[in-house]
Batch of 2 targets.
Target 1
Amino acid sequence: MTTDSRTEPSTGLDFPTGFLFGAATAAYQVEGAVAVDGRGPSIWDTFSHTPGRVLGGETGDVAIEHYQRFRDDVRLMRDLGLQAYRFSIAWPRVQPSGRGALNQAGVDFYSRLIDELLAAGIEPWPTLYHWDLPQPLEDAGGWPERDTAERFADYAGAITTALGDRVRQWTTLNEPWCSAFLGYGSGLHAPGRQDAAASVRAGHHLMLGHGLAAGLLRSAGQQVGITINLYDVLPAGEWDVDLDAARRIDGLQNRFFLDPVLRGSYPADVVHDLAGVTDFSHVRDGDLATISTPLDMLGVNYYSRHLVTGRPAVGGDGHGGEAGSGASPWPGSEHVGFVKGDLPVTAMGWEIYAAGLTEVLERVAEEYPPVPLYVTENGAAFADEPDPDGLVRDAERVSYLDGHLRACRTAIEAGVPLRGYFCWSLFDNFEWSWGYSRRFGLVHVDYETQKRTPKSSAFWYGDLIRGRQGASLTGH
Ligand code: IFM
């Protein structure tokens, strides 16, 4: 591997012994092979093939061919020095109809991937649900229906029984906020429904599915966690309506998930805000006890802050940077405006605000019962392309990662039990409704040839992991 696109190493970025450094992907974003070895359709296949849903009409049909190229990809991970690989298992690949017997060919793929990782000295860190619901379950009502939670628990039990002998840590869901509120509220994500009440029910049933699965896994001696996408939510001004806007968005983005999972209750103010949307009669006795099954870890995904206002004249796009849809992903708080601050932004238009990562980590550690934390996603999209010499010099991403890793250090020094960090993403890949137009990878992918080219950030991150900050490098 060439090392000529390295940047200057970071200094002072030391982490406690045993701190786990990895990188992440998700099945639909990288695998391709959507009709291979018995895989069934997911809601993202249907959605991406529906005209107008994804920028440029792009789909995950081919993606970056990780399904076929995983051995080479694992070799690359090893060369970069990754200690762990966070990937997701495609439910429709291992249980195409969402119920019944597992599809052995699909299970075998993940079994081979895990074996390959272990042989390379890389810890497999699988997520059971990263948004690709089997289409037959959506046809039966999807996450707004309680039965989907039961189906998820059955799938989780079966796949973890099949693969659990080689996995230390399972994650149930990735970012249930997106599945619920973008999937069923704004319709920006699959399945593209716009129904505020359904989105709240979906959020509950996602968490119920998590809780049912967590109970099963723990009674089988497995370790389990969940990943939630948290934001530092700040008022755009000192007005009461701005403070109220911040409380509401913090409620829906963060506490709607943290409180049931870690405390076994919904936040009273959020239930009150949602009074015109739902009466919460979908919540049954015992659900919150199930949802708050003790966890072995909480995954935190962090990208940016939300700056919000309740003043209509000041209001921004109303969607928290998730433009492109007419409906709101904020049920009961549709009036809140999202303001662009004065910070530099990534290619997603997301403000770069590393201090917010320290904030959310410290907040979880201070306000909730103790649980080991991992940053399971953090990273940035920039318009990276190879220079004429073939190297990809992504200094902005290096700076983003450096800043956010320093924010992790600050949290650790303050006593936060942060145990690891996963960069999003290992590879450029299918960025959901943005198609392939946004590149988050440490490794550049040429979508015509599938050529992988580690960017400067990949070498920088590898050096950090190997603790070689003092090595003499060619600066580019
Ligand atoms: O690409 C996504 C990922 O699938 C989930 N978290 C946020 C990333 C960037 O948008």
Target 2
Amino acid sequence: MFSSHAADIAVRFIHVSKIFSAAGSRVAALCDVSGEVPRGSVLTVIGPSGSGKSTLLALCNLLLTPDGGEVWVLGREVRRWNPPDLRRAAGLVFQRPAFVPGTVLDNLLLAARLHNRRAADPEAYLSEVGLPADVLLRDPRELSGGQQQRLALARTLVNDPEILLLDEITAALDPSASRDIESLILARRAERGTTVLWVTHDWEQARRVGDYTWLLVAGRLVKAAPTPQFFENPPDEQVQRFWGGEPEGGKMS
Ligand code: ADP
Ligand code: MG
């Protein structure tokens, strides 16, 4: 597991733990997680609600800091990164994007400005995510769920991130819109070698888009394998137990 050359690794988790204290009790959101994501690969992360998936992504761009262990992104431990630079390099997209009041254009320009970039050609950003130029002056809230998610991606891509952190970005979309988003991300990866850490509830999606897949259960990385092996038929007991207890994700075919 640790044989690969450091330069070939986009993200490395080394004995990572994250503890939350809430209402007097302590929750280990992540517990001794170690693993690495090769550059240019798509890692899909699955697991029940509350298993630490979002926490794992948040550690990669300093929305959270680890309580134990280290998280290395593009060859540097996250706490040695300047946060804006790190967030430019590792862009996070959520399930339900939030937009500032105003137009699609306002939102793109703001994203660019926040990162000291000029959105030189906003229409180009839109076409990259398959949105027509005529949405530029519309209110993002009028767009369909799929279009909003495309806009959220466009806003992140303004920074040309080397790493995309995707947190259940298709969970609110219908299957056809989800597939479109998948194609978009995979095209981007093919074109630019973008590394993708993709948290998803949908194990069919994890199987479709992943090169590697991790299963988190109660903050522990209980299974990590190249995606075809991960989902080998029949799925092993651990995977089956997980999907058995998680009907909304468990579309066993
Ligand atoms: P997932 O994304 O897999 O649903 P999360 O990473 O969001 O899981 O959460 C993992 C655990 O950490 C859960 O038990 C959750 O309640 C807890 N947790 C997450 N964020 C916080 C927080 N800011 N404060 C307290 N507990 C939190
Ligand atoms: Mg989550």
